[in-house]
Design goal:
This protein is an alpha+beta fold and about 190 residues long. It has a single domain, classed as Clam (outer membrane lipoprotein receptor (LolB), chain A), CATH 2.50.20.10. It is built from four helices and eleven strands; from the N terminus they run H-H-E-E-E-E-E-E-H-H-E-E-E-E-E. A hairpin with a 5-residue loop joins strand 9 and strand 10.
Length: about 190
């Protein structure tokens, strides 16, 4: 059985790199998106990786990032308003931070990552398309450098599967589970016959 699987893998044509046009068509016009997310943070100053269970809900007007474990918290982004609720449920409005260009850039960048908004990502990043992924590195002249490298991984249906965000001292990996989108993603074209 193993020999058959190996033979099939060797005969199968290699997957083609993703293209900008494919991703633009697939992610255009998202009105809402929700997902369960497994977040793993690790870094130079961390004793061990920190794993969190997240529930994400997105609309163009509002993003809710609700941490379910290990500590229940939430972050709500509405326009340039940022509200954080701690484990006790107390909400803190952090809108004053929105005047900081780094925070404004981060809020905009979060929106562009969730919706795979390539035009927004390409404003500040050089993007390389590969098989099942795109990798974004900050442009040399970018005013605000939030990350040194961003990798967006896609499954075989080109659905968002994973995000990796790297800084000089930390890496955060987000694995997306049970994504629900409105409108649903368009069907992929059938593979060409050989």
């Amino acid at each position: 059985m193993l020999a058959l699987l190996l033979a099939a893998a060797l005969v199968a044509p290699p997957a083609a790199p993703l293209t900008r046009d494919e991703l633009r068509a697939r992610y255009a016009g998202i009105r809402s998106l929700s997902a369960d997310v497994l977040q793993v943070k690790e870094g130079r100053f961390w004793a061990r990786p920190l794993e969190s269970q997240i529930r994400l809900r997105y609309t163009p007007d509002r993003i809710v990032w609700e941490s379910l474990s290990p500590v229940r918290t939430s972050v709500v982004i509405e326009g340039d308003h940022l509200t954080v609720s701690g484990a006790g449920g107390q909400a803190r409005e952090l809108s004053a931070l929105a005047s900081d260009p780094r925070v404004a850039a981060l809020l905009s960048f979060i929106r562009s990552l969730i919706t795979v908004d390539l035009a927004a990502i390409e404003r500040d990043f050089d993007v390389t398309y590969g098989v099942g992924e795109l990798v974004a590195t900050p442009r040399a002249l970018s005013e605000v450098k939030l990350f040194e490298r961003v990798r967006i991984g896609f499954d075989a249906r080109h659905e968002l599967a994973e995000l990796e965000l790297e800084t000089a001292s930390e890496r955060t990996r987000l694995t997306f589970l049970r994504i629900v989108r409105d409108p649903p993603p368009p069907a992929l074209p059938a593979p060409a016959a050989r």
